[in-house]
Structures are given as C-alpha cells and as structure tokens.
Amino acid sequence: MKQQTNQIDRFFTQDAAAFALGYLDYLKQVLDGIDPGKVARFIEVLLDARARGTTIFFIGNGGSAATASHFANDLSFGANEYERPFRVVSLADNVPVITALGNDFGYDEIFVRQLRVLGKAGDVLVAISASGNSQNLVKAFEFAAKAGICTVAITAFDGGKLKQMADETVHVPTGPKEYGPAEDAHMVLDHLIGAYLMRLVKAGG
To answer: pTM, whole model, 2 decimals?
Structure first.
C-alpha cells in the first residue's frame, strides 16, 4: 500500500465529484487556520511603506512567482491610487534579467542581484514560498537583513527557513508538499488584502 504523504492523498478518490468535495473542505480548513492578526500586521507594513514612499518588492518561484506578479498588479494598480500609490515591483517579472543572472551567476542569485541594484534601506521585501526553503529567496532575505530592508514571508508547510528569518510572517498551515492548497490560500490573501486596501484608499485612508 502506497504511503500517504499528505491530506490530499488521504481523500483522493477516482470519483471526481467526491474528490472536489474533499479538496474544497480541506481548503476551508486551511483558510480557517490563517491568523487574521498576521494578515492585519502585513497590511500595516504595506500601508507604512506607502506612507513613506518606499518600494515593496515581491519574489517567488514557479506558481509563487505568478502570485508575486499578481500581488504587484493588485496592490500597485488595483488600489487606483496615484497621489500616494503603493510602489510595488515583482522581481519575478523580467525574464531577460532573470535568465541573464541565472545563466551568468546561477539561479540562486536571480533575486539578490536585482535587490543589490534596486533595493534601499526602508524598502519591503515579500517572499512567497510554500516550503520557505528556496535558496534564491533565502539569499535575498540575507541581503535584506544587512541592507535594512524589512522582510515578510508568506509561507505554507512548516514555514521553512523564511518563516524563521522574516520580520513578519503570514503562514498558511498545510501539510508537506500540499502545493495546491498552499498556493490557493496565497492567492486568497492577495485578493483579500487587495480588496481591503482598494476600499481603504477609496474611503480616504
């Protein structure tokens, strides 16, 4: 009998409707496990960066790179604020830069070398990672700590190294290798935070 490694294995069935029900029920449990106080603290960090006119950088790999881009779009343009904007950049977006840095210096360097050019003290660096252990994200956090850049880790599984290194964290409590629910929940956080900030700005906040 194949060993079950996570909750998705546990409720898997060839009945697609039953699997859908199990997946959605589990996702509800995952979302219920997110600490709303941590979400509120992350929002405070974003609002503080906006008030100071500093830059918020997002980084991530794979699906988390897509979420980083989505966050950058929703915060910088979705808020519809141009007098005091959220200055947000996804460092996962520039394919020529990423491939050049990866080719010349190694994949572990693709974010830290961008930060060395673009980052400055007082900025915010947000890493999105299910495992929290990707070396290119860890290296970016190590640089940020030395450069006076605030770090936020949005994680899952056990949080990994990033959860321990970050100034602030929003953790999604999933089992190991449950990338689907982890990344689903990360996107919920994007839309939740974006919806809040858009309305806060509209209300004059």
So the answer is: 0.95
How confident is residue 112, by pLDDT bands cut at 50, 70 and 90? very high
Q: Which residue type is seen at 174?
A: T
Answer for the pair 126, 152: CB distance below 8 angstroms, yes or no: yes
Collapsing DSSP to helix, strand or coil, 54 comes out as coil
CA distance 56 to 126: 7
- 3.30.40.10, 3.40.50.10490, 3.20.20.70, 3.40.50.300: which CATH number matches 35-202? 3.40.50.10490
Task: Name the E strands within the chain.
Answer: 55-60, 87-90, 124-129, 150-155, 168-171
pLDDT in tens, 17-42: 999 999 999 999 999 999 999 999 99
DSSP output for 59-79: EESTHHHHHHHHHHHHHHTTT
Give the mean pLDDT of 95-124.
98
Question: Beta partners for 124?
Answer: 56, 150
For the record, the structure tokens of 61 come out as 């790999």
Roughly what angle, to the nearest 10 degrees, separates helices 16-32 and 179-202? 50
H helix and E strand count, the chain = 9, 5
pLDDT at residue 205, rounded to an integer: 83
